[in-house]
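Let's inspect one such protein example.
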Amino acid sequence: MAPVRAVVGAAVVDDLRAPTRLLGARRTEPSTLAGGWEFPGGKVDPGESPQEALHRELREELGVSVVLGDQLTGPLGDGRWALGDAYAMTVWWAVVVEGVPEPLEDHDMLRWLTAADLYSVPWLPADLPIVDAVAARLR
């Protein structure tokens, strides 16, 4: 069995202390995930810390710089979230401090979602438990 690959994601919100909106991103590839909504982020490259990887991914995918908040702790023993059998994702709360989010890479649409419309997009099934955790904190 192959080792689980480390990936990172950001719950990009409008305010770290009292969030009212979450930024969702619609995937364009691979074809099996295209059209599904997710938390922006990606794989951790060799020699990178998870936080460094997340900052890099958000610059590449959305063209923004962020400040990271607390980790959004998942149910796995190390606080990560399972994404199928092959990946485990560490998620941080984040707020944009430079740039305007645009779908530059791997996505074709971004949308700010409030608590009322958080489930109005088709989230990737593996991301739904994370969406539930975010929903509990949105005001």
